[in-house]
Amino acid sequence: MTAIVAAVRAPIVANRRLIAAVTFVAFGLIDILIFGLFSHKGDATFAFSLFGAKVTVPSLHVPARPVTYALGIASVLIGVARATVTESKLLKRLSIAAVLLFFVLAMLLWSDTGSWADGIPINVITLMQGTLAASIPLILGALAGCMGERSGVINIAIEGQLLLGAFTAAVVASAVGVLWLGLLSGSLAGGLIGAMLALFAIRFLVDQIILGVVINLLISGLTGYLYDRLLVPDANTYNNASTFSTVKIPVLGDIPVIGPIFFDSTIFLYITYAAIILVQVGLFSTRWGLRVRAVGEHPSAADTVGINVLGIRYRNLILGGMLAGIGGAYLTIGSVGTFSKDMSSGLGYIALAAMIFGRWTPLGATLAALLFGFTTALGSFLGSITVPISPFILGMAPYVATIIAVAGLVGRVRAPAADGKPYLRE
Fold this sequence. Notes:
Blueprint: H1 2-36, E1 43-47, E2 60-63, H2 64-84, H3 89-113, E3 122-123, H4 124-150, H5 158-176, H6 179-203, H7 208-231, H8 235-238, E4 247-248, H9 258-262, E5 264-265, H10 267-285, H11 287-297, H12 299-304, H13 309-336, H14 347-357, H15 362-384, H16 391-409
Parallel strand pairs: 1-3
Antiparallel strand pairs: 1-2, 4-5
Helix pairs in contact: 1-2, 1-3, 2-3, 4-5, 4-10, 4-13, 4-14, 4-15, 5-6, 5-7, 5-13, 5-14, 6-7, 6-13, 10-11, 14-15, 14-16, 15-16
């Protein structure tokens, strides 16, 4: 039996290596034949300061065509090496990251030297600010997923938690006129969905995947109905909230490059920082986290030593839902101030993919969410300078990145052993 498994596994590994090598070479050829050949002569400009900054950093001027060629050749060589040399896991991941980075840089060099750019430099600060802004609901949703699945319950309902959080925050903030009440209500709305998920999944043993999809459809229909019946006829009263202003942290906000990106934003970004730290430290460095992970791996063993398995699952789903509700509130009172139908637009499912890509760890899920957020920000930037790429293709970028990440880059991952399995005390 061992010999049979080894014989089957060898072609699979070889095929994966060949597919990866061909993909790397394809990316390199795109860099050379499209971004290189069609780059205009001249330099691309990367700006590292915002207008009016106290301390400015000189812009970087890069000869677009030669550098693009070099990036493409490097990707081709990495692909050839992947096909011929056996690499460690670390080198495989670094090669993937390098090829993707080279592709993005080549695209930026091509876009900034085109006639459509009209001399507009690539402002790295603005691009990174957009990345963080787009990542906030994804990170909070992914953290909600981590908390639920580490305790053994699959949370497909992140989409519904984001959507109801956005709706509730907009309505309450508009009607009452207090943004903090809107934020609190949005968080509680997400927690309510978490409680609903917990009740049906834990108490009534409903299939967790089907349950999550049904909850998402329920919230989509409910918010859409209330939008038509309540928000549209009386938008000034129920759908006209203000938004949180940016809060610049003294001293840190004035650090060149880093300050404007990480320390000059709305309260939602700082809440996200705190959530990442609390969930990461809580799950892996506290007694509570040890119990949660024990429940997610072997609930019967945890029960025998006195751990309340069902209680931990209830609490984690509700707390995770509250985090996702804050992410939903960001979509309205953190950015545009108004609610629109299905405005979460699949962000909950991308957050779920980020959690899987991050291997069910808060830090890994955060990095994956930042990757997806970057694709959104990059699409917005390219659309702002009207590159000759269809806006529909640019809009698909985050979802394509999700498919590539989960299907092609994650590889073999192991969820918590009891994830998705109802627990019944014997």
